[in-house]
Amino acid sequence: MAKKQFKSESKRLLDLMINSIYTHKEIFLRELISNASDAIDKLCYISLTDDKVGLSRDDFEINIVADKESRTLTIRDNGVGMTAAELESNLGVIARSGSLQFKKDMDAKSGDSSDGGDGGEAGDLDIIGQFGVGFYSAFMVAEKVTVSSRAYGEEKASIWISSGSDGYTIASHDFEHEGAGTEIIINLKQNTEDESYDKYLEEHTLHSLIKKYSDYVRWPIVMDVTKSRQVESDETDDDGNKKKTWEDYTESEVINSRVPIWQRAKSDVTDEECAEFYKEKFHDHTDPVAILRVSAEGLVSYNAMLFIPGVAPYDYFTREFKAGLQLYSSGIMIMEHCSDLLPEHFRFVRGVVDSQDFSLNISREMLQHDRQLKVIKTNIEKRVKAELKKLMENDIEKYETFYKAFGIQLKYGIANGYGMNKDMLSDLIMFYSSKAEKLIPIAEYVKNMPEEQKYIYYASGESITLLDKLPQAEQVRDKGYEIFYLTDEIDEFVIRMLGKFEEKDFRSVIDGDLELESEEDKKEIEKQETENKDVLDFVRDSLDGKVAAVRLSAKLKSHPVSLAAQGEISLEMERYFKSMQGQQGNDMFGNMRAERVLELNAGHPSFGALKEAFENDKDKAAKYAQLLYGQALLTAGVPLEDPSGFSELVSTLLFG
Ligand code: ADP
């Protein structure tokens, strides 16, 4: 039979498994049992609405059989099974959602290893341990893996065989077991000097591995267990009584205690165990930043185990990502991604909600309208908020980790829905502080404000570096005030939506009246503006509609000019709309242009030169106006409309 080849990504993972020197190879069993359990979950779910399954809840089980003679270990389930096509697509390529990330990590690690990058063994192995890699982990202990399976609803069964990276075969098969299900036979590797694979045939090893890793699996994991009993022998003792001897016999036994981890008492489960459960179930390889356990009684009774991840899944910001919590009813999963349990702004939360108040065959549509769901959702929202707040206050480093991954989600939560959620979210937001040179909560900014400071100052632009050099920022910083530097496109919308924080208004350093000048300074500027009205008008006119106004500004200390905006649309918003226009290829946002204001520094030599030219050489004065406008654009990080024209202008002015 022709061998089929693994896809290259899968082959790489497979090679890693086969050649693994990882010391915790034992996790392969956990992975296979977890797959078996998932498969049973699926068939059990089908059976709720489909009588043809013909199995009741109590009929489902996972069997483990060790055969010392043939050195095989068999893991069998009566779950949903796989068709030939599914065997091909599930086992021929990496299916695991986390695998892409896994591979990226592997590549990154092997990239910086100095041994020529032959897999970066140590780093890779670390990942296997933390993360597990599904079905392929069988190859850490197997020299051959045989998967026989019959999919639910099919008569025919198929068999998939592989001895490793040289490929696999698939054929139709006479599956000896009835109904749907999957059987995985592992032919163990030969023992080596360092490693005994025989141990995976030992009852006590298997027993303790199942206890260690799969105890909470809901379905019975059944194994033959050796027991002893006393029996009467044929011999008689001196008194004529039959002698008793011990005899070994085997009996099928359920090994796992089957209590889902989220249903166990808080005091019985360590944080490490919860984190392990999270990583395994949600395919993450980093610990969550927070674990929440809820057990509620009342209007609705439920248990929940929730996790706040520390990294965003690779598809988090794509349409592919399915948010939502897993919904269980008395231990049976009835929905894998129940998005009605989470508000959109907390869609990064993962976890399980289990309530016996939900009927098993509840339909998706009914769920959407369920009042009980709403109660749970509101409660979960409050709990998550409180947990994040606590993290922010008690462990800012962890919060930063979280915020790097999901801060943007919180910001969207404020910007969307017309500010409906701002009370829930505003105190979770952090911005970059010019003073602290890192992200800080808005409350911290307010706390740091000197008594006389009226506003929360912010500046938005492309980068921290650019904002730090902004002409208008100098004056604010000189006062000893902090400035929030906003670099996410959404930030300005967040600020607009918030309006205030703890009664303090936000004020843009770029566009706003900073109200830092004394009354006298203001009068002085007004006086100068009146005196220089004709120059300012001239500059505006020679810029030919590019700016709505030209003003003198007291904000500028050492800089000659700056660019600001007046009206509803700021420069930053204009930039945002432009990028939207680019992305969506339509013109809807094209007209969203900020009304520009050119601000001149009357105390700067450039202004003197402009005035002189205005009086003696109008042509030159017009050139100065263009030059100053160009400079203003550059410092504001706004692209020049005509870069080569500007360059020519500079040359003409400098070199004649
Ligand atoms: P993951 O379980 O993370 O998706 P695996 O590589 O372990 O990744 O498995 C790949 C896919 O193969 C699974 O998603 C599932 O569809 C299928 N599969 C694996 N084991 C079984 C099984 N025992 N019964 C049915 N399907 C299975």
Label this structure with key terms:
alpha+beta, 22 strands, 21% strand, binds adenosine-5'-diphosphate
Q: How would you characterize this protein structure?
A:
With 656 residues, this protein is α+β, with helices and mostly antiparallel strands. The protein is built from 21 helices and 22 strands. The strands form 4 sheets. The protein has an 8-stranded mixed sheet, with helices on one face. The chain has a 6-stranded mixed sheet with strand order 15-14-17-16-19-18, with helices on both faces. It is elongated and about 135 Å long. The chain starts with 7 loop residues before the first helix and ends with a helix. Adenosine-5'-diphosphate binds next to helix 2.
Q: Can you give me a brief rundown of this structure?
A:
With 656 residues, this protein is of the alpha+beta class. The protein is 38% helix and 21% strand. It has an 8-stranded mixed β-sheet with strand order 5-4-3-6-2-1-7-8, with helices on one face. It has a 6-stranded mixed β-sheet with strand order 15-14-17-16-19-18, sandwiched between helices. Strands 9-10-13-11-12 form a 5-stranded mixed β-sheet, sandwiched between helices.
